[in-house]
Design goal:
Elements (H helix, E strand, L loop, with lengths): L7 H6 L2 H11 L5 E3 H8 L3 H13 L3 E6 L2 E6 L6 H7 L16 H6 L6 E7 L10 E5 L5 H13 L5 E4 L1 H9 L3 H8 L2 E5 L12
Parallel strand pairs: 5-6
Antiparallel strand pairs: 1-3, 2-3, 4-5, 4-7
């Protein structure tokens, strides 16, 4: 009876948990997830999730990286099966949980450093154009934000120009109309993450 209730995709891939994980990864190929988050999103037991992650990683369709004492898993977009898997899983198996994974790429990127990050400005810097790609505002005494920026470079696959400021330094320099910050806010800004409302005077679209 239980087997008969499985979806065709679950039958094809031999495991309900495996199919749900593939759906999670390949319908969100730019995102990464840690284990307890996955168990919540796909509503499966942690031992089952661990087992299927090991299976998927052994054949190379997913990859992992460690950051801040957590292991994050994501789709291996360089695998030859990435495109067909994305085609198969482009429609959600369980659309009722869509809201659980709907975050912008930068919101997803910044989750590991949310306790250190006060604000982030993402700039659309054109090739050959001087200036920053990221303005990072927060406490970097332990170099968590510096390490995070290096991880982002790997995720983006390119060198990133970034600057890190303390909240106090940012607030002061904005108040005196610092030329460096004025230049940043004159560029095209693609995203601002500002949970504490520290970023003021952003360019309106």
């Amino acid at each position: 009876m239980t087997k008969e209730s499985n979806t065709p995709v679950e039958k094809l891939f031999g495991s309900k948990t495996r199919a749900k994980l593939l759906q999670l990864f390949f319908s969100n190929p730019s995102k990464s997830f840690y284990i307890r988050e996955m168990t919540r999103v796909i509503d499966e037991q942690i031992n089952s999730v661990r087992r299927e992650l090991s299976n998927l990683e052994s054949i190379g369709v997913i990859k992992n990286e460690s950051f801040d004492n957590k292991v994050y898993y994501s789709a291996n977009t360089k695998h030859p099966y990435c495109h067909p898997l994305t085609e198969i899983f482009s429609k959600k198996i369980d659309s009722a949980r869509d809201h659980d994974v709907k975050e912008s790429t930068w919101e997803e990127y910044t989750r590991p450093v949310k306790n250190y990050l006060t604000g982030l400005v993402v700039v659309n810097r054109l090739p050959g154009q001087d200036g920053l790609d990221l303005l990072i505002i927060g406490n970097d005494k332990t170099k968590k934000l510096t390490h995070w920026a290096e991880v982002v470079e790997k995720k983006q696959g390119k060198m990133i120009n970034y600057a890190i400021m303390t909240p106090e330094d940012f607030t002061y320099r904005r108040s005196v109309r610092d030329r460096f910050l004025e230049d940043v806010f004159e560029m095209e800004i693609t995203e601002i993450i500002d949970p504490e409302g520290i970023i003021k005077g952003k360019k309106e679209k």
